[in-house]
Amino acid sequence: MKGLNLLCCCVASLLLLGTTEEVEDASEPTKRDRSHLENTLKLNEDKPADDFSGVLQRLRKIYHSSIKPLEHSYRYNELRQHEITDGEITSKPMVLFLGPWSVGKSSMINYLLGLDDTPYQLYTGAEPTTSEFTVIMHGPKLKTIEGIVMAADSARSFSPLEKFGQNFLEKLIGIEVPHKLLERVTFVDTPGIIENRKQQERGYPFNDVCQWFIDRADLIFVVFDPTKLDVGLELEMLFRQLKGRESQIRIILNKADSLATQELMRVYGALFWSLAPLINVTEPPRVYVSSFWPHEYHPDTHKDLFLKEEISLLEDLNQVIENRMENKIAFIRQHAIRVRIHALLVDRYLQTYKDKMTFFSDGELVFRDIVEDPDKFFIFKSILAKTNVSKFDLPNREAYKDFFGINPITSFKLLSQQCSYMGGCFLEKIEKAITRELPDLLGSIGLGKKPNVLSCDITGCGETPKNRYKKP
Asked: What is the C-alpha separation between 344 and 348, in angstroms, rounded?
């Protein structure tokens, strides 16, 4: 009898154990197939990466010899707070993730890199989890780098972040991961936007830091989920900072498989309704609707639609990676155009000041009159009329009040005086870079035919100052 009871207990224990294992297996979510992600991003290819070292060397030389002298002479970085370093020129494309808290930004990075259930994965949760700016980059082994180390390393592109103070550097962290995708791109995860928190409570200028990353990002993912569609002051400020970068913005409606079809349509409409006042462009930005995490889509949802949306986003990301050198050269050329316009404006302010000054004039009062009402002296109109500059590229007039408040007009030289016998004129050199050298560099990496020397009618190069030192 005891043997029979013992046998029954053993059988019952085995049945209970099997039932427990079945429950555990049923509760564990099924992982999604990643083959489409690896194929679209070409992670399985063993083809060596293109060697652009020669192009980068030429690009650095053009910047240092043709653009930087004029940039420093007219203190452009004090107007735009954007000084280009060698690390920025040679850096990989940057993908920036922005949006409210707990919408799935960190989960999306984990999914793209396949970091889930590995020691490398970013921490995620339903509560606000990311309080730092996290830079995920390639490295030979898993390694965490403190913000103060990243800012001190001049070889990296993050050394200018030191200007935001030590409190911010404590909230900056770098993670090196040995992943093939990170050999070609760098991801930046940002703290989620919390509308009931004042910026001062963060301990550093959050919006200024966001602007620094926005200015350098090649692709910007603004992520939402169905439960966080409201727009507060901090998110509204963020979209103001994104103005002019609409071509790089992608809106992502994440966790879409958590909704039924009818609810998803309503949420999609509500998202556009919330963002419409913030995006003042003719064409709305591209919106991707899917669920970016490793688990299978919920049953009875539009799996095929979500998969197509995901593949479209991956193709978008891959296009940015493939065009990294073209984008880098175009960025330097755009920077050169802005530096040139700034130099022309400072030169015009200075020339007007010299024309209005007499022996008995008070220089401070004369220049204050010019800065307060530049239209009275046709400062900006004369630039548009004589140099073929687009009015849409002109800086804000108010910005020059602050600029000249820090930099006295008498500390600058006229463009015609920025020439030397050996080096030529600063303005000539930057216009040569804009119209010939940078377009030719684009041609050398296979973007169409190698362009000829462009005319001023096409490129907007304006007056050329006479080189007083150049022999006829």
From this structure: 6
Structure tokens at 90: 């040679």
* CB neighbourhood size of 448 (10 A): 8
User: Three-state DSSP class for 143?
Assistant: strand
pTM of the prediction?
A: 0.79
The string of pLDDT tens digits covering residues 416-434 is: 999 888 878 999 999 999 9
Which residues are CB-neighbours of 380 under 8 A, at least 6 positions away? 345, 374, 394, 397
Identity of residue 450: K
How far apart are alpha carbons 100 and 98 in whole angstroms?
A: 7
Q: What is the pLDDT of residues 61-95, one digit of tens each?
A: 999 999 999 999 999 988 877 778 888 888 899 99
Bridge partners (DSSP) of residue 173 are 134, 146
Strand order in the sheet with 143-146: 143-146, 172-177, 133-138, 186-189, 94-98, 219-224, 249-253, 286-289
Cβ atoms within 10 Å, residue 32: 18
Q: Between helices 206-216 and 233-241, what is the axis angle to 10°?
A: 30
Q: Are 427 and 387 in contact (CB under 8 A)?
A: no
